[in-house]
Design brief:
This protein is an alpha+beta fold and about 150 residues long. The protein has a single domain, classed as Gcn5-related N-acetyltransferase (GNAT) (Aminopeptidase). It is built from four helices and five strands. The protein has helices at about 15-25, 35-45, 95-110, 125-130; strands at about 5-10, 50-55, 60-70, 75-85, 115. Strands 1-2-3-4-5 form a five-stranded mixed sheet. Helix 1 packs across helix 2.
Length: about 150
């Protein structure tokens, strides 16, 4: 599906304010444009991708990837670490276009399995990923690391 006026490209420092708004819409408030601008070079230096969807000159979506070499698989595992489309632009195919671009970038890095994580509360996102061919295969457990907290006994 081609979306007139849609451009997918690497994120740039000048996209930071728009990306910060998208991160907030994803449910992660508190990232400023300055925070995003500081993190973008770290993403690039780590060999990860940060892509944006630009529609008619405005950033309306963002996707980031990561690659994880693992012992239990012969090839690295790719991860769509973040995918968000602006609230007013959802349902137009922008997310699917970003997802395909992320998948292509991960495949180019040798990943033969791609996974995505999504908050348990984001039911619309879960339906989106299922429509795009992803299936729920496991649970992810997380802990917020704190200084001096080993996690033992909790």
């Amino acid at each position: 599906m081609t979306i007139p006026g849609l451009l997918l490209r690497p994120a740039r420092r000048e996209d930071s304010a728009a990306i910060a708004v998208l991160i907030d819409q994803l449910g992660h408030p508190g990232s400023s444009a300055e925070d995003v601008a500081a993190r973008l070079p770290l993403i690039e230096a780590a060999g990860m991708d940060a892509l944006v969807a630009e529609l008619d000159g405005c950033v309306v979506g963002c996707l980031t990837t990561s690659v994880m070499p693992v012992l239990h698989r012969p090839r690295p595992v790719g991860r769509i670490a973040m995918l968000v489309v602006a609230e007013g632009q959802r349902g137009k195919g922008i997310g699917a276009a970003l997802l395909r671009a992320g998948e292509a970038a991960l495949a180019a890095r040798g990943c033969t399995m791609i996974e995505v994580t999504s908050n348990n509360t984001r039911k619309d996102a879960h339906r989106f990923y299922e429509r795009e061919g992803y299936e729920a295969t496991s649970l992810r457990f997380a802990i917020h690391a704190e200084a001096g907290h080993s996690g033992a006994g909790h």
